[in-house]
Amino acid sequence: MTDASRRTYGYLTALAVLAIDQLTKRLALGSLDLHQPVSVIGNLLRFTLAWNQGAAFSMSWGGPMVLTVFTAIAVILISVFIWRIKNHAPLFLIALGGILGGAAGNLLDRFFYGKVVDFIDIGSNGWRWPTFNVADIAITIGGILLVILYRGSAKRNPEAV
Length: 161
Hints:
Elements: H1 3-31, E1 38-41, E2 45-52, H2 63-84, H3 90-113, E3 116-124, E4 127-128, H4 134-156
Antiparallel strand pairs: 1-2, 2-3, 3-4
């Protein structure tokens, strides 16, 4: 498999994540009222439209302009990294693509609205996780996958670390 065909995994994953993220956010904006939960699976999973000016999972971090600039830089760097990377497994590029697509999805929200659309609301027994979106899920899964892949390669080849 050539490096060019491997890159395709990363960029196609990013495009798929971006499309699903933006589609679900448009659906949420068109069908949910702000801060009015709609039960999907009892109290465990609800859709609750919320605006997030912070980072992933509503974490406060540096303010909206800092987050916009940071996210834009991350999108550029990950895009270049995928382009320049050589000899990595497709799963590594898929993980990077998930992070890229999620970051791009939240960046688009910041450009269009000045904040991010969140709508996935999980919790139980009075405890709720901060509301999030598909982009946040992709960034989190991509990051976890990169850590797992890195740890696995470090165990197989300790000199590469």
